[in-house]
Design brief:
heterodimer; A: Double-stranded beta-helix; 13-stranded antiparallel sheet; 54% strand; B: Double-stranded beta-helix
Chain lengths: 225, 226
């Protein structure tokens, strides 16, 4: 499987070239084009990995209920993937490690990669962010997307990221959700809501922009529903 | 920096996210430009507004008018900004035909004929775009734009594109609207309907689609009082 990302960082798209028999599992609605001999199967789960309950949790986590599996026939083929919002994509090769991925950033993974949904507690709900994050691990390829540009931060010790700016982080990092200011009052009035305080060693991939902030900025200029 | 075609000298700035086209006209040379796309021009350029494509374009919502700019008594430059932020491409037509998605037209030589082509109800209605395509034919330059990045694909055989991501294709390609996968995929894949292209030619697609973006914005509208 060869992946190439074009038009970074503004309007990125990923081209995934599949050899005969290879499968890529993609988020519903992310396919923009496909060529060669590629067939699509839609299901609530990855092959041999969980079922409806997992799908329901994924859906609550802001991902789609269904997953699309694109499989290349004998002649091979290619699949183009992209997200709705302007922004970047990144590809990662997982080699046994696990990432925690912000809901909505998952685009696609190869068949050796598994996905689970983790509950982040009620605190996160207050910040208007998703209640769930995805835990993605295994061995294989992973494609993620961001709103705005993606930049990696190597954490060595402690680091704070606003929850709306996290794309993914390595599971080796400990994290704690906390308020941005000293009091809840200043955190909410200051518009920062919740932040994620990381501890340890590992990489956090951040996104330069926060999609809901953009949504509220445009939405308030539109006529009411 | 400037590129040269047999007719014009031009340059494209700020690709791929905010492409902006500048064309240099020789004395008495004319260029056709999509209505309202002119951003800047030299004072010796004269604009003439022409109705193009007849009733078709009126129905499609694409502007009915194309403006013609002519440089008078000396050369002059025109800056052209497509409506959507995105990429821009140029092709030189040599008595061949390119079909553009409804909003993709930016500018062309006067010798290029711009017509609307009825796609047929089934194709047009389900393609996720309008009922019409813009047919560009003849000999000369043609510029067109996308929302998001542009990807050119040389098709020899078949290629499938999600409706709404098609920007342009050459006349050697035919398409039909259909589904991919089984009926379960049709309803649950989130991919909906697709355009199946076949034949030999070039296809241009865009990495974003404006309909999906406006659907994303919709829930952020304020709640009505009633």
């Amino acid at each position: 499987m060869q992946t190439e990302i074009v038009h970074s960082p503004g309007n990125a798209a990923a081209r995934v070239q599949l050899d005969a028999g290879e499968t890529i599992t993609a988020e519903g609605g992310s396919m923009i084009a496909l060529g060669g001999e590629v067939t699509l199967q839609t299901s609530t789960h990855q092959k041999g990995k969980g079922g409806l309950l997992k799908a329901a949790k994924r859906w609550l986590g802001g991902e789609s209920f269904f997953l699309n599996h694109y499989t290349a026939g004998g002649a091979g083929g290619e699949v183009w993937l992209a997200q709705t919002l302007p922004g970047d994509m990144m590809k990662l090769a997982l080699d046994g490690q696990t990432l925690v991925v912000q809901a909505g950033s998952f685009v696609a993974c190869s068949s050796g990669v598994g996905m689970e949904v983790g509950w982040q507690g009620f605190k996160n709900f207050l910040s208007g962010e998703s209640l769930f994050w995805l835990r993605i691990g295994g061995t294989g390829k992973l494609i993620l997307s961001s709103y705005g540009a993606i930049y990696p931060v190597q954490v060595n010790g402690e680091y704070i990221v606003d929850t709306g700016h996290i794309v993914a982080f390595e599971e080796t990092l400990q994290f704690k959700l906390s308020k941005a200011g000293k009091s809840w009052w200043s955190s909410i009035l200051g518009g920062e809501g919740l932040v994620c305080k990381f501890q340890g060693q590992g990489i956090v991939w951040c996104q330069s922009h926060n999609a809901p902030s953009f949504g509220f900025a445009i939405g308030s200029k539109l006529r009411s529903r | 920096m400037n590129q040269q075609t047999t007719e014009y000298e031009y340059r494209v700035a700020a690709q791929p996210d905010f492409s902006f086209l500048t064309v240099r006209l020789q004395p008495e040379q004319t260029i056709k430009v999509e209505a309202s796309a002119m951003a800047t021009m030299d004072t010796n350029l004269r604009m003439k507004t022409k109705m193009r494509g007849g009733l078709g374009r009126l129905i499609t919502g694409e502007s009915l008018f194309i403006n013609e700019f002519t440089a008078q008594s000396g050369p002059g430059e025109i800056g052209i900004a497509p409506g959507a932020p995105g990429d821009l491409d140029h092709v030189y037509l040599e008595n061949d035909t390119i079909f553009l998605q409804n909003t993709a037209y930016v500018a062309s030589s006067p010798a290029v004929t711009i017509e609307t082509k009825w796609q047929g109800f089934v194709k047009g209605f389900f393609s996720g775009e309008s009922l019409f395509l813009i047919k560009c034919s003849g000999q000369g330059d043609l510029w067109f734009n996308t929302f998001g990045g542009m990807i050119a694909i040389d098709v020899n055989g078949s290629y499938t594109v999600d409706t709404g991501h098609v920007v342009a294709f050459t006349s050697g390609l035919e398409y039909r609207v259909g589904r991919i996968g089984g009926y379960k995929s049709l309803f649950f894949s989130g991919e909906g309907l697709v355009c199946h292209f076949s034949g030999t030619g070039r296809l241009w697609i865009q990495t974003r689609k404006i309909g999906a973006f406006s659907n994303w914005v919709y829930p952020y509208r304020p709640q009505g009082r009633d």
